[in-house]
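Researcher: Re-running this chain for the archive, since the previous output was lost when a drive failed. Same request as before.
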Amino acid sequence: MAQNDEQAVRNIQEEVVSLGFEIPKKKSLDLLSLGALVHRLDPGIIPFRKATNFAVHVSGGEFNVAANLADCFKLSTGIASAMVENPIGDLIAERVLAMGVKPLYKKFKHDGVRGPNMATVYSDQGFGIRAPIVFYNRSDEAAAQLKPGDFDWKAIFADGVRWFHSGGIFSSLSESTSALVIEAMKAAREAGVVTSLDLNYREKLWKPQGGMKRAHEVLGQIVENVDVLIGNEEDLQKGLGFHGPEVAASAKTASSKLDTSAFLGMMEQVVKRFPKTKVVATTLREVHNTNHHSWSAVAWVNGTPVYAPTAELKVLDRVGGGDGFASGFIYGLLSGQAPEEAIKLGWAHGALMTTFPGDTTMATLDQVESFAAGGSARIQR
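Model: Regenerated structure tokens:
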């Protein structure tokens, strides 16, 4: 009887750690991202209409994942993107190398007046009851001109890539970037590379392309090729059109953002519509005010739900928290850890990201592992 019980436990454990796909062993790159590189101007807590100076952060939702994995988690990563040959491009390229990310660029020459350009993102931090405000200048953006055929995916994947990642931000930039993501996802799957997409729905970016309806069409085509899907409650509803919990801004009308049963219901919709998708992971965030968030995460892993704890966060800068979660979660899976541990690593790294200025990590692996294991903020001597 005892042997039967032990076997039952082993069967449960095997079910929990089964991802539904194989992750390739060590290759030249642990992860390759495809996306736009941008520079973000950050005046801190000062609103832009009164700002007199800015910090400059190099960013991009897809790049942030590669940068975090390289800098904090010490994996070998790359970024396929556009690069403009001008001083702003030089600034961005320097930061890419400083984070330890291998660049694969299609280069563009600036005409000295109009472009093509490296996009600018404007984002203050907000404070207390005042929410952060984000807006863009993506006029004549070089990355939006990327198209199928610009990268030799067969040769790139032949060199050895374990995991390919892209996102909804890059997909939203133009019809050609949407087509490029689909091309790359198909090539990655043919090469036996794991594929992931962070939905990262941005209403302001999709609006010029046709809004939510266009997002549903494009992202639906992309997710058909995706093994691992990452997105929060708004991403899943607005990006793919699934039903779920209320996402109204008003706290009086919104249901709890930490209701995992509601999110698991959404995830079942996702995998039913997209059978190739075996893992769906999302952060859960209840925003009490700009600097106080309740933070958790949940994942559906090949039929088994796994959960992160809930933490009360004092937030310095919320930008990059979702990318921090994605990179920590992907690291856990790439390093062979059980999904229950992987989601804690994503949750911990995303939480730590909110304590730093900027879009990419300043955390160490020791800090992530300590917080994931229940560590405190006591001073380290």
